[in-house]
């Protein structure tokens, strides 16, 4: 698939998205944009692990954002505070998901 074909398909998908999913998609698109930029600027450098916002965590777990904050404050997600923001490493979220299925 060529880049223009991919972009056309992405535009169609975005048009069909419910408005509630748009913030999550914007965050993902920004992450992708930064990955592409990194490949252009520094092709040999790998990107550090992404930190997820509480909104992204909630969307991935299909829970309310308030519950994601509660899990983070309780230490369940191994959240990191960056200024006033809480972030969760994707690997920590995967570990939490794995613990749910035990």
- Basic shape: globular
Rounded mean pLDDT score: 85
In terms of per-residue confidence, which ranges show pLDDT below 50 for 5 or more consecutive residues?
Answer: none
Order of helices and strands: HHEHHEEH
- Based on secondary structure, the structural category is mainly alpha
Helix share, percent: 55-70%
The end-to-end span amounts to: 40 Å
Give the strand line-up of the largest sheet.
1-3-2
Tally of extended strands?
3
Largest β-sheet summary: 3 strands, antiparallel
Number of DSSP helical runs: 5
Strand content: 5-15%
Q: How many domains make up the coordinates?
A: 2
Compute the gyration radius: what is it?
16 Å
Structure description:
It is a single chain. It is built from five helices and three strands, in the order H-H-E-H-H-E-E-H. The chain has about 100 residues and is mostly helical. It folds into two domains: about 40 residues; about 50 residues. The protein has a three-stranded antiparallel sheet. A hairpin with a 2-residue loop joins strand 2 and strand 3. The longest helix has 20 residues. It is globular.
């Amino acid at each position: 698939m060529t880049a223009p074909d991919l972009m056309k398909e992405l535009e169609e998908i975005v048009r069909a998205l419910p408005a509630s999913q748009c913030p999550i998609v914007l965050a993902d698109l920004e992450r992708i944009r930064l990955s592409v930029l990194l490949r252009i600027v520094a092709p040999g450098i790998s990107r550090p692990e992404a930190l997820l916002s509480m909104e992204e965590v909630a969307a991935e777990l299909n829970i309310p954002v308030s519950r994601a904050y509660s899990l983070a404050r309780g230490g369940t997600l191994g959240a990191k505070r960056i200024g006033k923001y809480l972030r969760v490493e994707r690997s920590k979220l995967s570990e939490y998901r794995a613990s749910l299925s035990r």
